[in-house]
Design goal:
The chain is α/β, with parallel strands linked by helices. 39% of the residues lie in helices and 19% in strands. The chain is built from 5 helices and 6 strands. It has a 5-stranded mixed β-barrel. Helix 1 packs antiparallel against helix 4. It is elongated, with a radius of gyration of 43 Å.
Amino acid sequence: MYRFLLTPRWWGINLFVVLAIPFCVFMGTWQLGRFEDRVQTHEAAKKQPAPGTRPVKPLDELLPVSTVTSGRPATATGRYADQFLVPGRKLDEKAGFYVLNMLRTDNGKALPVVRGWLPGEPGRTTVPTAPTGTVTVTGDLQASETASTQGVSARGGLPDGQLGIISAASLVNLVPYDVYDAWVTVQDTGGPGTGAAEKAGALRPVPAAAAQGTGLDLKAFQNLGYTGEWFVFAGFVLFMWFRLVRREAEAARDEQLGLVAAAEPAAGPGPEAGNAEETGEAEGTGKARGTEAAGTSSGAV
């Protein structure tokens, strides 16, 4: 009854099932592993001490930025150069912008330094000038932003002197020197939040953001959802295979029991039809001869 499983058609179906189920299980397991990694990273990030309590280290010792070094206090020495304003940034639910300066270090590369935040819009708010001469900057290390970073606006067409995304990929097109693939946010700005009296026009420190991929965000739960989808796909493939096998087996059994009528041959001229045609021809010939005979007799009279 199940000999049909050895036919070429079913060989193709069986091969597809044998390959599809392990693939779905593998992808589901991989997505589950991604979710578990995000959970572990989130737990590890929660256990890390506050940025201000960790020891300060030279910038080069903390690069490249990772989930471990992100938020760590880094120090670098150099001179402030170009200045950019980063619009569309909020602090305490208030609209404003970042003030970013490029710190030219001794090795020639520049480190983007966010000196602080100001309310309002760029160009309409007075920006405190950056210190001159050689300075040593200490700030919390951050990874370069991307279009998916929270708070970033990827819209183009910004005026000169403004920057949409804090990243080396954006800055290398605006400055004539190399840029570190990282940036720091200064916490000691001398403005509100550092012990100084709050006053108009003072820079406010920008808190360091958690490293990307360290929280239970939407992407983490997407991994969990994809896990369920892949296992459902595996079960669906197996279910459809059993259904097709059962239907094929039932059809073969019905045929063996004679419950399925054999296909009747197409109607065509048979012996009876041939006899009928011959009979019709004979009758027609007889009628024609009778008519000829009658005509001959009338002529004779």
